[in-house]
Amino acid sequence: MARGGFAQWGNDLYTGRRSYPIVQRRRLWYSIVGLFSVASILVLGLQGLNLGIDFRGGSEFTVSGTSTTDEDVAIDAVATVAPGEEPHVSQVGANAVRVQVSQLDNEQTDQVGQALADAYGVDVTEVTSNFIGPTWGQSVSMRALWGTIVFVLAAAVFMAIYFRAWRMSVAAIVAMLADVLVSAGVYAVIGWEVTPSTIIGFLTILGFSLYDKMVVFDKVRENTAAVTEQTRSTYAERANLAVNQTLVRSINTSVVALLPVAGILFVGGFLLGAGTLKDISLSLFVGIAAGALSSLFFATPLDVTLREREPKIAEHTKKVMDLRAGLVAEGADEGQLAAAASGSAQLVPGHHQGQSAQPRRRR
Tens of pLDDT along 310-328? Predict the structure, then answer.
């Protein structure tokens, strides 16, 4: 789309001349989110996450100055000392290899270090070893869990106070947790190792997801501030207008955020072999994309579903639809009805917010 065309498209969305029925199709979005969520739960339950050594404990070896980073070399070397061991091998930079195994005693540690040095043709001093106990891993896991819980609770309270509507807070938190669930499911499918960097990525996802939902919900609040004082449009239609008005901003924000993350993921993670960058960038890439989509297609529709359960909103919606049915009976043209459905224009020319729409009588 040309620059002028994209700008015109965004302007049409903001003014209501163009509108997509996003909220009106919320059952479709619920089904999609539900499908991905169930799939993620099944993958996490059946396959689980590939927890790194920081969470499960074990011994880690780093071989520097290697002429090759072939993983099979390290696997064969470890097998000569611990035949039943299944090491996790990853490339670190252009000429280094990291090997992680389960807990070894001091004698086995020395033997594995020597075997790796011989296998890769380097001096034994180029092989460093590190041991991480299971207690440390449990401590890291608990801190990550408590950090997530505190963040979610603080975000829920903040949004409830800011928007003065607990339903918006619930919708945002549910959508935000769905973002993390889907991201974790993708991580489990790919099978990459979960490290502290991955957890940092997941927490960053929560922050970005919350920010994007705050932008959309702020526009929803603005559009629906006095929705029950007029009879031109329903709460759902005003919320749908808000989603359309923030659509371009969400796209721009997401693309700007995804481009550098994609660079880190594909250049740093794959080409340069930086394992830490790969761990955090994958979780960020999937989470940012999921957060942007859920803000538009899940969080706002969920808020509408919850708000329509309020007697006041339900009564107002019925009143608007009854008046609109009266317009149809009186022969209103398609333009008026389309404007009414989008919640962006007046049903009757000259009708202003706060006034009741009266069916026009034929003369």
Answer: 999 999 888 888 887 776 6
Q: What is the CATH number of domain 19-49+136-311?
A: 1.20.1640.10
Domain definitions of the chain by residue range: 19-49+136-311, 58-132
Which stretches of the chain are DSSP H helices? 3-15, 26-46, 53-56, 71-81, 106-120, 134-163, 166-190, 196-223, 235-245, 247-263, 275-294, 300-307, 311-330, 334-342
Q: Are 66 and 94 in contact (CB under 8 A)?
A: no
Whole-model pTM? 0.74
CATH architecture of 58-132: 2-Layer Sandwich (3.30)
Average pLDDT value for the chain: 80
- Return the residue matching tokens 């669930």: 181
* Whether pLDDT at 223 is above 80: yes
Buried residues in 201-227 as b, exposed as e (16+ CB within 10 A): bbbbbbebbbebbbebbebbbebbeeb
